[in-house]
Amino acid sequence: DAKTTQPTSMDCAEGRAANLPCNHSTISGNEYVYWYRQIHSQGPQYIIHGLKNNETNEMASLIITEDRKSSTLILPHATLRDTAVYYCIVRVFGDSGTYKYIFGTGTRLKVLA
Amino acid sequence: DTEVTQTPKHLVMGMTNKKSLKCEQHMGHRAMYWYKQKAKKPPELMFVYSYEKLSINESVPSRFSPECPNSSLLNLHLHALQPEDSALYLCASSQVGNTIYFGEGSWLTVV
Q: What pLDDT score does A53 carry?
């Protein structure tokens, strides 16, 4: 299964952009990259996903490199409420014909006032 | 509405007890998942049901027994657990191949 690696922790000043990297060098051509965040051990919350093109929604932007070996989640104007653990996930198609969502190690983002 | 409801929120059980965790969704999703999360670790996939059939078991010990009675419900039956099984158990659902949505989890403590 494709694996993802992320920095353990990052700090970001409030109001600045937070750029969270993810390495997924073993990703296959049809495997999507998803990003979730988890606040205080609540259930993970969906943020954004993409295959090869850059994506943007009301929460964030996702930049995927052309070779698809890495991606960056961008929170354009971080607030204190964005303090959370951010997970980069690869959706893989398993041998059983079912999709699996494999979590990376996660980055603990702390937004500083 | 992207709500996945898990009950109970907290469960304390002895090593000889039998208990169940329940998960419910009314989004018409046909894939449902159980994940286990230890403190300061990422969630780990345990089981996947697709169209009410068990399609993935990630080599989970038999003391964990999943059940999908219908397309809206997912249970996790627990029996003869060990203290190291104490964790946050997360349920999720999705349309097959689409974004998964998580419940808030059930905190399990085995004493």
A: 87
